[in-house]
């Protein structure tokens, strides 16, 4: 009897101990599950936040890619315009260089022509000066002849009373035009 009572008592202790262990295991399991659920909820919130952030980054990336493509197109357009402007300016510069060359040739020809006209003018001026000197020499000779003639005509006019006119030489002024 004692042994059966002792076994019953031992069994009751084991069952109480097993119930306490089961209760402790269930409490630990519930606490552990609660912590895991809490961590899972936080992780899910973090995952949602990460997904939202990834979506925003994706949208921003797409916006930046679209902006980059737009800028690339604008850049290519500007480069094309720059090439066209450079070609046009080089063509205009070549035309202006040709014009400058023609103007320099015209200027050289005009200078040569002016030099030729100046030489001709100088030659004509030299001829005029020579003619002026010759005219002055003839004028002196004529004035000398006139004085001789006047001296001689006074003696003749005394002999001829009807004709009292004296010959007078009026020198003409010569003008030259250039």
From TrEMBL:
Q: Name one GO cellular component term.
A: intermediate filament
Entry's Pfam families? Filament
Which protein is depicted? AINX protein
Entry's Gene Ontology BP terms: intermediate filament organization
Ordered alphabetically, the record's keywords are: Coiled coil, Intermediate filament
Gene Ontology molecular function: structural constituent of postsynaptic intermediate filament cytoskeleton
Q: Which organism is it from?
A: Upupa epops
Domain called IF rod: residue spans: 1-149
């Amino acid at each position: 009897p004692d042994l059966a009572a002792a076994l019953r008592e031992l069994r009751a202790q084991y069952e109480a101990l097993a119930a306490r262990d089961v209760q402790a295991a269930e409490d630990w399991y519930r606490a552990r599950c609660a912590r895991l659920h809490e961590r899972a909820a936080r992780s899910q919130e973090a995952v949602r936040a990460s997904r939202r952030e990834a979506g925003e980054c994706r949208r921003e990336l797409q916006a930046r890619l679209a902006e980059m493509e737009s800028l690339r197109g604008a850049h290519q357009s500007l480069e094309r315009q720059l090439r066209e402007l450079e070609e046009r300016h080089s063509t205009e510069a070549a035309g202006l260089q040709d014009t400058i060359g023609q103007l320099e040739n015209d200027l050289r020809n005009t200078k040569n022509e002016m030099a030729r006209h100046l030489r001709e003018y100088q030659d004509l001026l030299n001829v005029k000066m020579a003619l002026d000197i010759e005219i002055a020499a003839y004028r002196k000779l004529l004035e000398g002849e006139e004085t001789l003639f006047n001296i001689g005509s006074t003696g003749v006019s005394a002999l001829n009373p009807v004709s009292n006119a004296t010959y007078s030489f009026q020198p003409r002024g010569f003008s030259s035009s250039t």
